[in-house]
């Protein structure tokens, strides 16, 4: 019985975010935005939106990271989650960001264009979903990070990115292939990267998303 009480107490503490320490990654905003847009520009899409940083999404991402729970909120945003847990020194935030984005994008070979779902490449497809136009990321240091399945990771840097509008809709492909900016929404201009910049897509009713959120686990010893 005492063990059950301890476990429940630990879970409550994590839920309240009492184990989280804010990690300031505002200096990496430009890197996160630029890297996403550069990768999006490589796809050969006719309708790929330019990603802008959204402060509201950053706040929501921070609130989620502060929970120190490696799980999804399922609230209508696209989500890519990752963490690095170390038995040695605390992982550097810049390294966590670079490695997270790299591993998400490295799912690219697992995706077959035209399939009805993102399969095993859902981080990648959210990153390059054409209609997604806003991103906000945040990080928390978690002395103990819970994964919702009874596992606990110590000394973890927890990186959260929210995307809007969300992607990975069942029956839809991430983008329309074609010359850059040839299928931009009305009122959009074309950036130097070949991405559509301006008002979001309007009109089409959204289908159910295969999953609003995806996560990855990176537990590396940095000793």
Automatic annotation (TrEMBL):
Coiled coil: none annotated. The keyword Signal applies. Residues 27-171 form the SCP domain. Pfam families: CAP. SUPFAM superfamilies: PR-1-like (SSF55797). InterPro entries: CAP_dom (IPR014044), CAP_sf (IPR035940), CRISP-related (IPR001283), V5_allergen-like (IPR002413). Gene3D superfamilies: CAP. Residues 1-20 form the signal peptide. Keywords: Signal. The keyword Signal applies. This is Cysteine-rich secretory protein LCCL domain-containing 2-like. It comes from Crassostrea virginica (Eastern oyster).
């Amino acid at each position: 019985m005492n063990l059950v009480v301890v476990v429940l107490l630990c879970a409550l503490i994590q839920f309240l975010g009492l184990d989280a320490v804010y990690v300031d990654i505002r200096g990496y905003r430009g890197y996160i935005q630029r890297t996403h847009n550069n990768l999006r520009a490589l796809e050969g899409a006719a309708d790929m939106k330019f990603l802008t940083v959204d402060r509201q999404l950053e706040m929501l991402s921070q609130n989620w990271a502060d929970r120190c729970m490696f799980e999804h909120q399922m609230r209508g945003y696209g989500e890519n989650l990752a963490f690095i847990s170390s038995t040695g020194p605390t992982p550097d935030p810049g390294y966590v960001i670079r490695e997270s984005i790299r591993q998400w994008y490295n799912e690219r070979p697992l995706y077959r264009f035209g399939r009805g779902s993102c399969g095993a490449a859902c981080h990648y497809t959210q990153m390059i979903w054409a209609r997604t136009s806003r991103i906000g990321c945040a990080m928390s240091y978690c002395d103990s990070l819970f994964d919702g399945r009874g596992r606990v990771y110590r000394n973890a840097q927890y990186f959260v990115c929210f995307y809007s509008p969300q992607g990975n809709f069942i029956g839809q492909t991430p983008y329309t292939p074609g010359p850059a900016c040839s299928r931009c929404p009305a009122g959009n201009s074309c950036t130097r990267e070949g991405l559509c910049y301006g008002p979001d897509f309007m009109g089409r009713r959204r289908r159910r998303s295969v999953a609003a959120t995806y996560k990855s686990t990176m537990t590396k010893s940095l000793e």
